[in-house]
Amino acid sequence: MNRMSDEQQQDKTADRHIASYVFRAIANYTYDWESWHSPDGKLLWVNTAVERMTGYAPEECLKLADYPLILVADDDKDKIAEVLRDARAGGSGNDVEFRTVHRDGSMHWAAVSWQPMYDNSKQHLGFRTSMRDVTERHRLREELRLHNQHLEQLVQERTAKIAQLEEQRQKMEQLAALGQMAAGVAHEVNNPLAGIRNAFALFKANLSADDENYDLLELIDSEIERISSITHQMYQLYRPSQQTPVKFDLRRVVANVIALLQPVAEKSKVQVTLQIGRCVAHRKLGTTEAVLREGEIRQILLNVIRNAIQASPPFGEVSIDVSTSADRVTISVSDRGEGISAEIATRVFEPFFSTKTGTRQGMGLGLSVSRNLVEALGGTIAIENNQPSGARVKITLPRQISR
């Protein structure tokens, strides 16, 4: 019986050795980094996956005095130390992320899980840890975070853009209402103004130029003309175009407007020059020809060039550059004045906004009317500021329109 007991004992010992070998083999071929620890935390065994994740062989790890903390990034050491304290106390946990430091200096993200180990008699044998490489998961999570952040930014930008467009819509509605009212007022004022002008012309014709009050009549005549000009501009803010596109020479039209403004330029001691840039012929059009509403082009140029003359210092220069491509016309009007600030540049096209001083300097309608006319033609008008060496108004129009 005793000999049978010895054999049974030997069998049990052999079974334990076999079981230990099998379990170690299974753990060694596990993809995750597995470690077995004694109850006090001392490393008993670690599988070969540790070398793939840290660059240290299992034999080296068994000799490390501060395993596994020496393999953990400094910022995460406290976190893993707390995990080890919990494991020594018999606790368990799962998926705590931290960074490992590879032997080559690179860092990788890992997630550790831990649990206590007991034998059949419930005796505490220590604990095991399993560390999985989650670098790719963390990279994808970071990409997702950045993507969400980008989406949030886009939403904020779109929301701000919608708010800006809504503000612009309300402003345009207000300007449209104002323009409609201004056009109505201008129309009502223009009729009695025509009667006043005719009656005044008769009155003036019967008065000798030698009369001591004749100068006052000249003043009244100029003021009537100014009122007429203002009502005409106000009417243009809202009135739809009645003109028909015609073929004309841009060089001729610009030259005519310059000649018309020559008295204003001479009074301000400003020289106005015309330059013809690169121009190309297109279909049935000459190099400087276009098919547009000629009267509106004259009005646009009259407003813009007059503004440039008024913005120029004495003995300054206003240069006008005309160029054409196959489908576009570009007219640039540059002055050598003080330029304009960015804040004012955003407002100069608003009706009734003016930087000019004095009651005889206009009502701030010229550029607003010009913008309306340019946009009605399918073009754009913009101010390119060169402060403090002047500004340039750039007008871009289609080469031809059908109506």
Molecular structure report:
- The chain is an alpha+beta fold.
- It contains 11 helices and 12 strands.
- Strands 2-1-5-4-3 form a 5-stranded antiparallel sheet, with helices on both faces. Strands 7-9-10-12-11 form a 5-stranded mixed sheet.
- Residues 12-19 have low confidence and may be disordered.
Short recap of the structure:
The protein is α+β, with helices and mostly antiparallel strands and 403 residues long. Helix content is 49%, strand content 21%. The protein has helices at 2-28, 49-54, 58-63, 77-88, 135-205, 214-236, 250-260, 262-268, 294-311, 342-345, 366-376, and strands spanning 33-37, 43-46, 93-101, 107-118, 124-133, 246-249, 271-276, 289-292, 317-324, 328-334, 380-385, 391-398.
Key terms for this structure?
403 residues, alpha+beta, 5-stranded antiparallel beta sheet, 5-stranded mixed beta sheet, rod-shaped
How widely separated are the two ends?
121 Å
What would the average pLDDT be, to the nearest integer?
A: 84
What's the arrangement of strands in the largest beta sheet? 2-1-5-4-3
Strand element count: 12
Structural class: alpha+beta
How many H/I helices?
A: 11
* Radius of gyration based on Cα positions: 44 Å
Tell me what portion of residues adopts beta-strand conformation: 15-25%
Residue share in helix: 40-55%
Question: How would a textbook summarize the main sheet?
Answer: 5 strands, antiparallel
